[in-house]
Structures are given as C-alpha cells and as structure tokens.
Amino acid sequence: MVPPVNTPAPGTAKFHVNPDGSLCYAVNASKITGVLGTHIGTKNGTELADLVNPYANIVTQQAYPTGSVNGILTSGDIKAGITGPPGSGGVLSPIGLVGPLVGKNVTDLDNLVKSKNAYVTVRIVDHQRGEIQGQILPT
What we know:
The protein is mainly β. The protein is built from one helix and seven strands. It is globular, with a radius of gyration of 14 Å.
C-alpha cells in the first residue's frame, strides 16, 4: 500500500477466465478484521472491479464490516460485459466492472492483468484506502 501499512495480514487471490467470458475469482486472507471491501484496481487506487461490495446484495453476503477473517474472504464471478436477457447469465451481478471499465468487457480487465497493471486491494475499517494489496500476475 502507498503509504505502506504495517500489518500481519497475508492474502492470496486467484483468477480464471471462463469460456463464457466471465472471470471467476477467490480471495483468501488471514489475520484481518473489519473488512469493508475488496476490489481489483490500479496501484494508485483507481477501482476497476468490485470483489466484495458491502452495498451490493446484502441478502447473500455477510455483514460488513467483517469479524475476523482466516480463510476465504470472497469468491464469485465477474460477468460484466456479457449480454443477454435477465436470468440468462447477463450483467446482473452487482459485483462487476466499475470506474473506467464500466460498460466494457471482462477481456478489458484481463488485458490490464496481462500488462501487469492490476492489483487486489483489501480495505478495512482502520485502513479504508487498503490494508493489504498485491499485484495480479498472469500465468
């Protein structure tokens, strides 16, 4: 993080582009409490995709801020950019592309990952700009 945060909290994130063009993800973290949100963004903080959004679908997500997290923080699919009528797997999820990627395809986010310009940031109550951040590296 800029500025750096002294934290014992480690985390990992894994991503995979599905054949339908969606991006599935899983974010794990430990030794962290009070998570407000998690997103993919640029190093300078521009948000590109929400991975945990406390204002999204409260019915299916746990309460925010979180208690202690030691394991899976969030997982799901980013489906922004997929077209189709409601109920067909189209752009229905509140977890999706934001900021400069609104209205664009998941492939645009994938291109940023491939160019090594995408990071995962986990925000908490005490560090709302970010507690932990890591660069997404293509494999």
